[in-house]
């Protein structure tokens, strides 16, 4: 006896329906993100995490907070090819959006952090990002800001030493787990509101599926299947090397996960990124060299599926991807606790280049 | 017949009360700031102004908003000696707080702008601040962000061309007029709550008056008398040159208002700054070279009043100044309107210094 799936497959083939459209499992975004057993999301933790996330004093010169490159007032990134860190330094990769990052099973473009907690510690001490000498230096500044003590105590009640790098990272991760954008037109459509998408967006959705985009960009977050935390969903990029795009956008200059692991099997592997709110996060691709979403869908179709899009296909896909822009929660600004009568930012700056009339 | 004032003066002298304490006119901060006839504060204007204030896309590299150096989540400045602009540039002056700036009759340290509206345009095109080539370039970016159009239309209803540099400046000024911090312990004290200040703070308040600090730092904003808009309240700094502080903190390197006017009479003249929330805005003095509030009161007493403070006097003054920290209104974060599918920040960057592993 044939299984139901085989029967369906048979019907699909009979009806001339392309296989991938059957395979697609369209999922709406959950309203809440899961939290790990050792870091349940609490209101006090979110409040502390939000405060830390917006506090620029944990960068060498006191000028960059997490939000500087992951701007939650916008698409959760900085709309730049790469971010600008201390001393005007630039990285080779584009800041990924922090919105819905809670749904990834690994963090960073190369998956080198398993959790949001691990990720949160990285940029603080990266010399081309926030540039702090060490996490101990960060804690030294927190210690000089009396108002942080009650926030840490409320977030981690009963702990003998609530102020620690691990707890700061837990709080930032807890805040990030609240950064969810449900109820996009796409979500409302798959929940049953057939008027939520325009005709062009529905066409784009079918094209997205039939071309094979869903083979990587699947699941509620369009970043692949749900895997255990620490297990990344990686793809080779470009899967079809040799197109003109390789040189035009330097697609192979950065070896992706290989740069982190030095394992040959990881060469040119990248975590499959979410497509949620993708319309807001130009420029595109891990190096931020592709300026528009129209160009990005063409680059991806060619490099990953070996397909040349027609103008109509590209336009439909872009229309569909615009339907992935969700609802952003209202966030109140945190009050950054004071270090009364002094600044925690070191006054001596060897890079001082003073000019008059500031 | 002697006037009531003279009678009171006589009584004061009889009682041995120092003259300045009688002269002091302690005023609470108003809950609202006045708005000019040609720019009445409206909800729609404040909303637009807040959005512009937090939008980093109106800086050359898309990295700095007004809030970067005038952080309203903190004391309205950046707790740095000077701010860091495009290309890692530094100015010679410390960012003044935006909180209660609405109560000044002139803007900038040297009063070179009459109004908040005029001031708002300056940093955008200052090459060592936000570094935009021109206000026209700013408008060019606004035009590429469709979501700004309805915000401008709502803020300036009925206008044929609502999007303009003047209107953007008006909106930012309208938002800034909401940045008021009433109900500090000092305010509650002068309104009649005698328990609002500690004993030390009351001592500091009397010292502040008897030493003569009130001769400059008077009025509700502690920045001098209320003068017509465009008429600044300036003082010479140092009034008593020659102390060791001159060299230690380079007090005469910047000639103040003279740098703007080139008038000899303006040499070393500075707008008298507010002392509200001064505990939050270290480091101090126009060049940000004085690290602590304790040191700042000593510097000011010596350079402006030719007095050497005792440790007790300095501590009392610092305690009093801490009573000028007010209540900060809750502000919700604006959603920055999107430029879907592209970035308005130019992708070509002649200063690109790429490094791997961003």
Automatic annotation (TrEMBL), chains A, B:
<keyword id="KW-0575">Peroxidase</keyword>
<feature type="binding site" description="covalent">
    <location>
        <position position="66"/>
    </location>
    <ligand>
        <name>heme c 1</name>
    </ligand>
</feature>
<keyword id="KW-0732">Signal</keyword>
<feature type="binding site" description="axial binding residue">
    <location>
        <position position="300"/>
    </location>
    <ligand>
        <name>heme c 2</name>
    </ligand>
</feature>
<dbReference type="GO" id="GO:0020037">
    <property type="term" value="F:heme binding"/>
</dbReference>
<feature type="binding site" description="covalent">
    <location>
        <position position="216"/>
    </location>
    <ligand>
        <name>heme c 2</name>
    </ligand>
</feature>
<dbReference type="InterPro" id="IPR051395">
    <property type="entry name" value="Cytochrome_c_Peroxidase/MauG"/>
</dbReference>
<feature type="binding site" description="axial binding residue">
    <location>
        <position position="217"/>
    </location>
    <ligand>
        <name>heme c 2</name>
    </ligand>
</feature>
<feature type="binding site" description="covalent">
    <location>
        <position position="69"/>
    </location>
    <ligand>
        <name>heme c 1</name>
    </ligand>
</feature>
<feature type="domain" description="Cytochrome c">
    <location>
        <begin position="199"/>
        <end position="325"/>
    </location>
</feature>
<dbReference type="GO" id="GO:0042597">
    <property type="term" value="C:periplasmic space"/>
</dbReference>
<keyword id="KW-0479">Metal-binding</keyword>
<dbReference type="Pfam" id="PF03150">
    <property type="entry name" value="CCP_MauG"/>
</dbReference>
<feature type="domain" description="Cytochrome c">
    <location>
        <begin position="44"/>
        <end position="149"/>
    </location>
</feature>
<feature type="binding site" description="covalent">
    <location>
        <position position="213"/>
    </location>
    <ligand>
        <name>heme c 2</name>
    </ligand>
</feature>
<dbReference type="InterPro" id="IPR004852">
    <property type="entry name" value="Di-haem_cyt_c_peroxidsae"/>
</dbReference>
<dbReference type="InterPro" id="IPR009056">
    <property type="entry name" value="Cyt_c-like_dom"/>
</dbReference>
<protein>
    <submittedName>
        <fullName>Cytochrome-c peroxidase</fullName>
    </submittedName>
</protein>
<keyword id="KW-0349">Heme</keyword>
<dbReference type="GO" id="GO:0009055">
    <property type="term" value="F:electron transfer activity"/>
</dbReference>
<keyword id="KW-0574">Periplasm</keyword>
<dbReference type="InterPro" id="IPR036909">
    <property type="entry name" value="Cyt_c-like_dom_sf"/>
</dbReference>
<dbReference type="InterPro" id="IPR026259">
    <property type="entry name" value="MauG/Cytc_peroxidase"/>
</dbReference>
<feature type="signal peptide">
    <location>
        <begin position="1"/>
        <end position="23"/>
    </location>
</feature>
<keyword id="KW-0560">Oxidoreductase</keyword>
<keyword id="KW-0408">Iron</keyword>
<dbReference type="GO" id="GO:0004130">
    <property type="term" value="F:cytochrome-c peroxidase activity"/>
</dbReference>
<feature type="binding site" description="axial binding residue">
    <location>
        <position position="70"/>
    </location>
    <ligand>
        <name>heme c 1</name>
    </ligand>
</feature>
<dbReference type="GO" id="GO:0046872">
    <property type="term" value="F:metal ion binding"/>
</dbReference>
